[in-house]
Amino acid sequence: MNNVYQESKDFAATYILPYTEMIDQESKFPEEAFKELGNKGFLKLLVPEEFGGHGKGLVEHAEAVLAFAESCSTTALCYMMHNVALMCIVTHGSEELKRKIFSDVVENGKFLALAYSEFGTGTHFYNPEIQAQFNGDYTKFNGTKSMVTSATYASYYLVLAPSVEEGKINNWVFPLETEGLSFEMSNWNGLGMRGNSSCPMHIENVALEASYRIGEEGSGQEQVFNVVAPFFITGLGSVYSGTALHMFDVASNYSVDRKYPDGSSLSNIETVQVHIGTIYKNAAAARALTLDAATAGANGDADALAKILAARIVASEAAIECGKLAMRVGGGKAYNKALPTERLLRDAYAGQIMAPSADVLNVWLGKALTGQMIP
Ligand SMILES: Cc1cc2nc3c(=O)[nH]c(=O)nc-3n(C[C@H](O)[C@H](O)[C@H](O)COP(=O)(O)OP(=O)(O)OC[C@H]3O[C@@H](n4cnc5c(N)ncnc54)[C@H](O)[C@@H]3O)c2cc1C
């Protein structure tokens, strides 16, 4: 893959866009798109070349997710989480775990998901409270994860759990077929991102060997900070920048196509021109910040963290603001759902509450910029 953004745009036009409306209307996971993501090699974007993957990193992750989100926010979000989970294994997995999971991704088109959030700790997902008891050769788990995107469709779920070392956590891989794992599928009724299948995962006496732990005992925090945070937060920047760009496309095309009886267009009205310009400015700024943040993260720049946090905050706010303006431009047709604008706005609302929420990130940004500790 040489031009990941363009190849992802082309892929999305053929294999994602045709299903976007249906997965929202039927609240259906984008299975067809995921099958093709496997067939066309996008699921292995981050798998190292020696394991048969493309060996790409943060910049290409951001580009692929951005391009997919310009066609479907839900598919982009599910794909983004797969990449984040995969990257934990790339950076911290044992050789045995890498061989097992990467071959399933590369050869069988399997994908991964993140089962991190809990009902209790909510947006502070890095403080897991499920029980993990070390029993000889096994660790036994009990508890519930609250919102697991791609539930039952993904083959592997990354689970954060307390470590035997006081105050530390571990990042585990739970295979889908593990005994004691069940999903409450009927629970998902999201305002937007309706194809996500983000439902609770119940963990009842699940017993796993240490080989399913990613990295050293107690290394979960370090993985959350150095891998999950950059890939997840930048990825969310891409999801919501792409959603905002999609809104621009819909609103600007509609404003040109909508004709009045005298033959003039909606786009001939100055106020509408200003709205279209504002949507474009917000969407383009979010995209630019996100791609710049991804480059800074990939290069290990000193200000990478601040850029990544800022990009994700700006992108999720931009998507909501672009959506509100696009609804105005779309008038009665947008309100009556003849345009996809209302779906895009519903999708955009997930941006401000997905963990770590925009409110939490605003605090973290201030801390990062003033040299203070971030949890
Ligand atoms: C579409 C979608 C998909 C998801 N997919 C997944 C997934 O795949 N895996 C997963 O693990 N989770 C997932 N989640 C869960 C999500 O990321 C959050 O963890 C969850 O929504 C938090 O829920 P809560 O209401 O309990 O948050 P709460 O902790 O109750 O927070 C509610 C609000 O309070 C405010 N707040 C809380 N604490 C602070 C603070 N310290 N400072 C400032 N403000 C604060 C924020 O405004 C926050 O939005 C998903 C959520 C959505 C919407």
From TrEMBL:
Keywords assigned by UniProt, alphabetized: FAD, Flavoprotein, Oxidoreductase
Keyword Oxidoreductase recorded: yes
Annotated Acyl-CoA dehydrogenase/oxidase C-terminal domain residues: 242-355
Cofactor dependence: FAD
Domain Acyl-CoA dehydrogenase/oxidase N-terminal: 6-106
SUPFAM superfamilies in alphabetical order: Acyl-CoA dehydrogenase C-terminal domain-like, Acyl-CoA dehydrogenase NM domain-like
InterPro entries with a match to the protein in the record: Acyl-CoA_Oxase/DH_mid-dom (IPR006091), Acyl-CoA_Oxase/DH_mid-dom_sf (IPR046373), AcylCo_DH-like_C (IPR036250), AcylCo_DH/oxidase_C (IPR009075), AcylCoA_DH/ox_N (IPR013786), AcylCoA_DH/ox_N_sf (IPR037069), AcylCoA_DH/oxidase_NM_dom_sf (IPR009100)
Domain Acyl-CoA oxidase/dehydrogenase middle: 113-206
Gene3D superfamilies in the record: Acyl-CoA dehydrogenase/oxidase, N-terminal domain, Butyryl-CoA Dehydrogenase, subunit A, domain 2, Butyryl-CoA Dehydrogenase, subunit A, domain 3
Gene Ontology MF: a single term: flavin adenine dinucleotide binding
PANTHER family: ACYL-COA DEHYDROGENASE (PTHR43884), ISOVALERYL-COA DEHYDROGENASE, MITOCHONDRIAL-RELATED (PTHR43884:SF12)
Family designation: Belongs to the acyl-CoA dehydrogenase family.
Protein name: Acyl-CoA dehydrogenase
Organism: Anaerobacillus alkaliphilus
